[in-house]
Amino acid sequence: MSKLKSLSFCALPAISKDPITTKRYRLIERLEQQRKLATDPSFTIRMTKTVKNADGTKTSTEREKRLTQWWKTDEKGAVVLSVRVGLKTLEFEKGKAGISVGPMDRLDSALSTLIEAVRAGELDGAILADVKSKQLKQGTTAKAT
Length: 145
Fold this sequence. Notes:
- It contains four helices and seven strands.
- The strands form three sheets. It has a three-stranded antiparallel sheet with strand order 3-4-7, with no helix packed on it. Strands 1-2 form a two-stranded antiparallel sheet.
- The protein has a domain at about 20-40 and about 70-135.
- The protein has helices at about 1-5, 20-40, 105-120, 125-140, and strands spanning about 45-50, 60-65, 70-75, 80, 85, 90, 100.
- About 40% of the residues lie in helices and about 25% in strands.
- By secondary structure, the chain is an alpha+beta fold.
């Protein structure tokens, strides 16, 4: 008990419910997955799914989910990277959704730079546009009678 007395205890901070912060952390997680996929083409993530059996009991099963690459190679062999938030590809400038990386060995550094930019909040404008478009869609989904 004497070791615990040397610690200072406090209340836990509230969890942020800001949609931009949530999207930012999710985007960082997906970019990290893309970095792993770039180094190991057979990389998959494990998903847990809860299924209700015929007798009403719930069981959880684990399965692998294959990731899709966010990059493509153009005619010259250069890698072009796109960033996705949900099902939407982010546009960095009007009509420009791709990042020209160059050779494949530069993909990891480009993904690292993107992760740092997301952590710094540099893509919040594009993320905010995605959040606002989803909120508008949810508000206008009234059924026509």
